[in-house]
Amino acid sequence: FSLSTAAEPWPENAALYQQLKEEQILLSDNASSLAVQAFLQMCNLPIRVICRANAEYMSPSGKLPFIHVGNQVVSELGPIVQFVKAKGHSLSDGLDEVQKAEMKAYMELVNNMLLTAELYLQWCDDVTVEEITHPRYGSPYPWPLNRILSYQKQWEVRRKMKAIGWAGKTLEQVLEDVDQCCHALSQRLGTQPYFFNKQPTELDALVFGHLFTILTTQLITDELSEKVKNYSNLTAFCRRIEQQYFEGHEKDSSAIAARSSKRSLLR
């Protein structure tokens, strides 16, 4: 980012783009979008959420969500954190080097375990693919384009799963990975309000995005959300962040919408 861009104040009309909330967005994209929204709320930076059927194709990287700030477009949490830092806002400045390394390691864990499990469930679990993923992913498009785009995406995700050694996993093994990840997060959080004590960092935003979305998304079975519900400190953590950063803010914020439309999130 150029220095001149960094120096410009945060504009009032900053926007975050994601897919259509009710009928299109999938669990993994919803979680990633909510993580970015939580991060920006924690930084006290206002953002409008704009839902577009073609959001994935509008993103310069093809990844979601992306933010449009001034004349800059930045996608995904990592790059957005860097962009916001260049503008003088950081949640992890107070951490020492060891803590920063630890925070990065836990963020890697969440992306490697939870995000990958969400993608696996959406695109590799046959029942979920047929009943939820294909209908939702293709919903904005006419037949046969809806099927073609869904199959293209499915092929892409399954190729990625093969590359990282997840293609041969059973659903049970994937749920076991999720449980291990939640166990590690629960241990690290303990009785603290946030992962690094009193103040939230980008790790808190990322964990909230994924866990809250898993807890409030209707899937074929409740097996995924049950794994999170086993850890009462993690569910309390999600409630705390929702209350502090989303309730009483804009009424259309994802967290509130997610809770009020719990039944229709992925159906």
TrEMBL record:
It is found in: Mitochondrion outer membrane. Pfam families: GST_C_6, Tom37. GO terms for biological process: mitochondrion organization; protein transport. Residues 179-241 form the Metaxin glutathione S-transferase domain. InterPro entries: Glutathione-S-Trfase_C_sf, Glutathione_S-Trfase, Metaxin_GST, Mito_Protein_Transport_Metaxin, Sam37/metaxin_N. CDD domains: GST_C_Metaxin2, GST_N_Metaxin2. Keywords: Acetylation, Membrane, Mitochondrion, Mitochondrion outer membrane, Protein transport, Transport. Residues 33-153 form the Mitochondrial outer membrane transport complex Sam37/metaxin N-terminal domain. GO terms for cellular component: SAM complex. Belongs to the metaxin family. Involved in transport of proteins into the mitochondrion. Interacts with MTX1/metaxin-1. Associates with the mitochondrial contact site and cristae organizing system (MICOS) complex, composed of at least MICOS10/MIC10, CHCHD3/MIC19, CHCHD6/MIC25, APOOL/MIC27, IMMT/MIC60, APOO/MIC23/MIC26 and QIL1/MIC13. This complex was also known under the names MINOS or MitOS complex. The MICOS complex associates with mitochondrial outer membrane proteins SAMM50, MTX1 and MTX2 (together described as components of the mitochondrial outer membrane sorting assembly machinery (SAM) complex) and DNAJC11, mitochondrial inner membrane protein TMEM11 and with HSPA9. This is Metaxin-2. The lineage of its organism: Eukaryota, Metazoa, Chordata, Craniata, Vertebrata. The gene is Mtx2.
